[in-house]
From TrEMBL:
Pfam families to which the protein is assigned, alphabetical: MMR_HSR1
Protein name: G domain-containing protein
Molecular function terms, GO-annotated: GTP binding
Keywords attached to this entry: Coiled coil, Membrane, Transmembrane, Transmembrane helix
Classification of source organism: Eukaryota, Fungi, Dikarya, Basidiomycota, Agaricomycotina
Coiled coil spans: 146-173
Transmembrane segments annotated in the record for this chain: 343-363
Positions of the G domain: 22-147
Signal peptide: none
Species of the source: Mycena pura
CDD domains named in the record: Ras_like_GTPase
């Protein structure tokens, strides 16, 4: 088992301030609240409320062992001519907002779920409009989630002319979507803006179950509003709690690192008098914790996974001239990979990585105290970048799994293989290029190694690669 973490950096400070992201979801029964929460936060809750269908107690904290970083409050929507639900929601919101309420106990964001209207029906009732104004007055960020957008698309399909029905299937799909978006802007976005253009902390998102892109937009919108309108670093907790957007997760993980142990990475005084192994384990736990996987067996902090990430990081650690002494089977691995250059220079990929294992030299090296050397910097840069990009791959592996289930070793192995077969060689080459001896004095003086780490994670993330491949 890995040694206990003895260092505490950004992650612990953030969760001490606000251990859970608190969301109030408001909407009538049948509008899709349960499905929305299940998919956005990666939990398998049969109902948002644990009471009878259509009934809920807004004061009850709804939590899930599958995701300990969020807590939910459920409110019924506002029926025409009824004020009881509105008064209850108003009293609750006023009791859970304001500077006199502890940050961890406040409502951090509201999702007001409104079904996309069909056949010319009114989108907002009077209670909805008053609630939007109330939320803005209490400065609680609120996102209007227009649900069941797919029904609007279906309506557009039903209204196609005989001539339009003869078009190619993809042309019909695109035409119906364009018309649905235009109708959505007219019937939903327009009325929302007319309620009060000066309302702050307000946004609107369309959503159909289970539209991953719409979910990703929703959590990104929520995260942006929380950062602008809620004090402290609750927005980081919101990003950690959600399980719908890899990009939001990645950026939160980077932010945690920049806040804590990345600062002054080349000459980090926080690591002094600690062994390299202790430091690596602290980095490991903070990064894995920031991704907030459903991992009841703690596989991500187990000795197997720790070893696998160390194997990747050790490839970029030694100086090229010393690589031969670090890896006794270097020639065999090099031949297996079919590479003309040394495996360390190119960084191992595919089967070559699996053949390496931890070298005795690396095991002895990390048992020593942290010191300011190029090898140490390369090791830490490699460890942080490799682990973060593996976490991104793992998030994409489990994103499609519904209903949510506990993380498995197979999931982790798939993520590792995906990363090994992607850009690891280029990542390690860039690290070596940055942290060579010729620039070591300059690196120590500038103290900006963390910016390079951030740059490389951004450049070699899956999102970046997708954008690059789609650019004409």
């Amino acid at each position: 088992m890995p040694p206990p973490k003895t260092l505490h950096f950004g992650m612990q400070e953030i969760l001490d301030q606000c251990p859970r992201f608190r969301v109030l979801v408001v909407g009538r029964s049948g509008v899709g609240k349960s499905s929305l929460i299940n998919h956005a936060f990666g939990v398998a809750m049969k109902s948002v409320s644990h009471q009878e269908r259509g009934q809920c107690d807004i004061n009850v904290e709804i939590t899930s062992t599958q995701n300990p970083l969020f807590v939910l409050h459920d409110s019924m929507g506002f029926e025409p001519g009824q004020i009881e639900n509105f008064v209850t929601a108003k009293n609750f919101l006023e009791s859970r907002s304001g500077k006199d309420v502890a940050l961890k106990d406040r409502v951090h964001a509201i999702w007001l779920c409104i079904q996309v209207p069909v056949a010319g029906k009114r989108v907002f009732e009077t209670g909805d409009e008053e609630f939007l104004k109330l939320a803005s007055a209490t400065q609680v960020p609120i996102v209007v989630v227009f649900t069941q957008f797919d029904k609007l698309v279906n309506r557009m399909e039903q209204e196609l002319t005989d001539e339009e029905e003869q078009m190619l299937e993809e042309q019909i799909t695109e035409l119906c979507l364009q018309r649905a978006v235009a109708e959505f802007d007219r019937a939903c976005v327009g009325p929302l803006k007319r309620i009060n253009p000066k309302l702050t902390g307000l946004a609107g998102n369309q959503y159909s179950n289970p539209d991953r892109d719409a979910l990703a937009d929703l959590v990104q919108t929520t995260r942006n509003l929380v950062e602008r309108h809620v004090e402290g670093e609750v927005w980081i907790v919101s990003a950690m709690a959600q399980r719908a957007s890899a990009r939001v997760k990645l950026n939160a993980s980077i932010e945690v690192g920049m806040k804590g142990y990345w600062t002054g990475l080349a000459s980090n005084t926080k690591f002094l008098n600690k062994t390299l192994e202790q430091c690596l384990h602290t980095v490991h736990e903070d990064i894995t914790e920031s991704w907030n996987f459903y991992d009841p067996k703690d596989l991500l902090n187990g000795s197997k996974f720790l070893k696998k990430i160390k194997i990747l990081a050790q490839l970029v650690t030694p100086d090229l001239a010393e690589a031969k002494s670090w890896f006794e089977n270097l020639d065999d691995i090099q031949g297996l990979a079919g590479m003309a250059t040394t495996i360390i220079a190119a960084s191992a990929v595919g089967p070559a990585v699996a053949a390496i294992g931890l070298s005795l030299w690396f095991i002895k090296w990390v048992a020593n105290a942290y010191n300011k050397t190029p090898e140490t910097l390369r090791c830490f840069m490699g460890y942080i970048i490799d682990l973060t990009l593996v976490m991104e791959q793992l998030f994409l592996v489990v994103l499609s799994i519904r209903p949510s289930r506990a993380l498995t070793e197979d999931d982790i192995d798939v993520a590792l293989e995906n990363y090994k077969n992607s850009e690891i060689a280029l990542v390690h080459r860039e690290i070596r290029k940055y942290a060579n001896k010729a620039t070591w004095a300059e690196i120590l003086q500038s103290n900006k190694a963390e910016e390079k780490v951030k740059e490389l994670i951004g450049r070699y993330s899956v999102d970046y690669e997708r954008e690059k491949s789609s650019t004409p």
